[in-house]
């Protein structure tokens, strides 16, 4: 043994058959290893708390000087005295769970129904499908190969910035779907998914710490587009004209129902005849975004649903053109109608916003509108919004005004609306 210096290290010769070691005479456990290839690497050798001999690489000679390597070795050997195990720590970094592995675990558990979501029920299949898309399109391509234990909060927020800047954006490759964009909204949803799945993994002991704890989610710029009274009237005229020209009748009827009820697109398209109770103005959904719900609908909406139900023998109100499923092409029909009408940025959710806007214009409270839309209860008071006469009257009143506009009529004044509402309430009591 001799003190390692630049001269002694450079004088070391390699052995073609095995590694060669030279240990420092001053710092016990510090040495240099020469591979048969001639590569010289500084190492430390020690016994861990289980009295097992371990070796850990400090760095390669040439990258580190002898004195730099000696300082690092001294620090690591001092940590060993306090119970550290540098070799095990280095090994755990190399073989630790990656983000991709945790994502795969989450998707498998969630799709099997073994993970409980915020509503204390298994995570919905539709939610898992959205999570899978964000994982495959944004999370895995950017940080999938990173080890979870080595990620920092700054890495997560940098990921959010990269997604927002469009680093994972790609052009549409087919006529339908396939387009991925950037933006704050996309980035916020991707990071929310990552944070949620890492919290699940931490809670169930898959990882020790979530690097996403405390992450600040970007605020998306939500533009709540809704149709004005004039736009609804114009849309109705165009729909009538296109119906005469042979536009898809189920698609046009679905658009009308979404406007008249404020129901979500999937709720309308997947609606079954058995769920509809025209006499009570109710639709019993066995499952929605907020769980099972009983929702009210006005007479104008019920007339459309009843007529549509009689148009086929399918169990669905809006049956598919082929097969046993339900109609799915309402987005394309709405796109054609709005293109003809010259209306921009109109989606099925715009129709839902338009219903809510009309209800607000008629003076209905935020609590009542929330009940009409089927929002999940967020407070004690909202739990007491039942399917009583007042809520049905509200749904009927809003649907009647929208139907009036669609059929080319004029929007009544608030005074006329309130008088009609009072009359309807008196009739209900009588």
Automatic annotation (TrEMBL):
One of its GO terms (biological process) is DNA recombination. InterPro entries: CB, DNA_brk_join_enz, Integrase-like_cat_sf, Integrase_catalytic, Integrase_DNA-bd_sf, Integrase_DNA_bind_dom, Integrase_recombinase_N, Phage_Integrase. Residues 97-202 form the Core-binding (CB) domain. Coiled coil: none annotated. Keywords: DNA integration, DNA recombination, DNA-binding. Residues 222-397 form the Tyr recombinase domain. Belongs to the 'phage' integrase family. This is Integrase arm-type DNA-binding domain-containing protein.
């Amino acid at each position: 043994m001799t003190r390692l210096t630049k001269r002694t290290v450079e004088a070391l010769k390699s052995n073609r058959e095995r590694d060669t070691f030279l240990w420092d005479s001053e710092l016990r456990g510090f040495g240099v290893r020469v591979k048969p290839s001639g590569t010289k690497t500084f190492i430390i050798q020690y016994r861990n708390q289980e009295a097992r001999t371990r070796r850990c690489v400090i760095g390669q000679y040439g990258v580190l000087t002898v004195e730099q390597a000696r300082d690092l070795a001294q620090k690591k050997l001092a940590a060993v005295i306090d119970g550290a195990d540098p070799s095990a720590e280095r090994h755990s970094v190399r073989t630790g769970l990656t983000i991709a592995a945790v994502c795969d675990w989450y998707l498998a558990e969630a799709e099997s129904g073994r993970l409980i979501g915020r509503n204390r029920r298994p995570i919905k299949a539709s939610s898992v499908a959205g999570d899978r898309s964000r994982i495959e399109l944004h999370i895995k391509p950017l940080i999938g190969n990173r080890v979870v234990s080595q990620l920092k909060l700054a890495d997560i927020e940098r990921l959010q910035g990269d997604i927002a800047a469009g680093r994972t954006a790609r052009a549409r490759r087919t006529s339908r779907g396939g387009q991925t964009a950037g933006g704050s909204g996309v980035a916020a949803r991707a990071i929310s998914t990552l944070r949620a799945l890492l919290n699940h993994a931490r809670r169930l002991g898959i990882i020790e710490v979530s690097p996403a704890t405390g992450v600040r989610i970007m605020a998306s710029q939500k533009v709540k587009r809704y149709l004005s009274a004039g736009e609804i009237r114009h849309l109705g005229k165009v729909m009538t004209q296109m119906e005469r020209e042979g536009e898809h009748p189920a698609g046009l009827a679905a658009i009308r129902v979404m406007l008249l009820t404020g129901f979500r697109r999937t709720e309308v398209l997947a609606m079954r005849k058995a769920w509809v109770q025209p006499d009570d103005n109710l639709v019993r959904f066995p499952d929605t975004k907020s769980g099972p719900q009983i929702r009210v609908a006005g007479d104008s909406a019920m007339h459309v649903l009843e007529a549509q139900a009689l148009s086929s023998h399918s169990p669905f109100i809006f049956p598919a053109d082929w097969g046993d499923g339900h109609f799915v092409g309402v987005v394309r029909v709405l796109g054609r109608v709005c293109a003809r009408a010259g209306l921009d940025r109109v989606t099925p959710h715009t129709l839902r916003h338009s219903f809510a806007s009309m209800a607000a214009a008629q003076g209905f409270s935020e609590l009542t509108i929330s009940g009409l839309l089927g929002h999940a209860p967020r407070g004690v008071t909202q739990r007491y919004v039942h399917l009583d006469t007042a809520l049905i009257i509200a749904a009927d009143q809003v649907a009647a005004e929208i139907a009036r506009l669609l059929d080319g009529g004029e929007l009544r004044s608030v005074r006329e609306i309130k008088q009609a509402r009072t009359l309807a309430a008196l009739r209900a009591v009588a």
